Amino acid sequence: MRSRLLSIPLAIACLLTLAPTASAAVSWIVHGRGFGHGVGMSAYGAYGYGKHDWGYERILGHHFRSTKVKRMRRTPQVSVQLETDAGDVRFTNAKRACGRALRPSRSYLAHRNGSSVRLMSKGGKALTSCGERLRAQGRGTIKIGGVGRYRGELSVIPTGSGSLNAINVLGVDSYVQGVIPVELFPSWPMETLRAFAVAMRSIALTTDVGGEGFDLYPDTRTQVYGGAGVETKRTNRAVRATRGEVVAYRGRPVQATYFSASGGRTESGFLGAPDVPWLQSVKDPYDHLSPLHRWRFRFSQAEMNAKLGPYVKGRLKRIVVTKRGDSPRIDRAKLIGSGGAASVRGDTLQAALGLYDRWAYFKKVRR
After folding, report:
1. Domain check: are 319 and 187 in the same one?
2. 206 shares a domain with 257
3. To which H or E segment does residue 347 belong?
4. Is 265 among the domain residues?
5. How many other β-carbons are positioned within 10 Å of the β-carbon of residue 66?
6. How far apart are CA 367 and CA 363, in angstroms?
7. Position 2 in a domain
8. Is 14 in the same domain as 54?
9. Residues 365, 211: Cα–Cα separation, whole Å
10. Of 100, 147, 225, 244, most Cβ neighbours within 10 A?
């Protein structure tokens, strides 16, 4: 998936006027702010700080309290799942695999053979057995058929479901080079890009999804990763300028989470998760640059009943927010229906209504 985090709100903003309209006598108006989970560093906030000549360390220090930028002594590797394939994994531009010299101009196949992997020619001729894992090294990059071009090493292992996992193993700096261009606009201020390079590196080194042979997903479950094929000179410069640097609390890298737009203030930690010192609510004055700094939806009574049907008892009569966070995003709300009341989490309410954020206010209007 190649979906730039920050282009999503631009597209959505153009559709706001197409939000559901009411055809009944009762309408529900939802006013809100922000786009995303609201925790950590907002992209548009960091963009504004970069435009106002803040350095990347200052940008990070504002969003992640009590932290410092630290340079690691060595650059670790990360492993990213690229795809799970029920058939063979095709690759080119490899000079070596499974202890055998290859011709980079030719295509080869990783083929599952029971619980092991076999290296095969493009035409299906068996070349050698690789054991439990095929490892292929390229000349700078390896091209994986139907997926893209990647730095580092291709690793292919059998899964428990009978397929093959194609995994990219590479240095964390090279990984970040393939993340920034699909999560941010490469034309943004250099100090903003540097701040995100450090945050993205920190996330990569503090995440382990526990996959079969991999630590990171290539999509929004971790960070959107496009490999060498999406790199730009400008974003690569931001990575090189911060090589090996992470956001650290008491000397250790932290989950330096980020999102699109804050609505003007970030939230103190994730809903339901333990509080951590570096994820505290802070003012975000430049978020007004986001097209989703403020937004509005209109729903009919029938639409509200349908969307909240699994949570409300009977016909929805009122929504009472019982607890807000520091931003103030909704933590919990009470849905009062004709058959009684039910309590829901703010993120559940957001998902059910398709809102852009938990920062929302509800108004029932009779016409």
Report:
1. no
2. yes
3. helix 346-353
4. yes
5. 12
6. 13
7. no
8. no
9. 49
10. 225
